[in-house]
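Record minuted for completeness.

…
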Amino acid sequence: MIGKLVGNVDQIFDETIILDIAGVGYEVYCPERVLKLVRNDSKNITLYIETRIRDDIIKLYGFPSLNERICFRLLQTVQGVGAKMALTILGFLSTEELERAISLNDDKMITKIPGVGPKVAKRIIVELQDKFILDKNIQTRPASIESDSALSALINLGYGRLEAARALSQIINRNKENLSIEELIKLSLKELS
């Protein structure tokens, strides 16, 4: 199997690029964000590859980091999410944004992606919540220092990461104004009790 390709972008299409490596052109499916990236810088591109063999077709999917390749694999473990939808999701959300949406139970962020309905968004959250949190290769990047500190405080008080993140998500979604760390913790504790 091919794990990584390094070469120059020869051509860019709607969903794929032709990556030239020593005169051999590999057709690689990429997320939209990667296609935009290689339009600006097409020399000496490194892509981590997921190889799929189906019947008589071999498809290569390319990602700029191992984290994105891991996310691509994880997304396809969700019922109703195939390679095309996983690629679309990673074209709209970075791995950090996706993990944040999952850990904070933010299905609204996921349903903004074309082709992803509310049922699939909920399935992504439910089925991947434990997998994303346990995967040390993908780092959580909360939206603010306040929410990060509040989550840490709740965990230090003995609450599990999942239940603390869910409570924080509900508080943040209900309150449009910025809350202080103390307010977030206080409201989350009420939510958890």
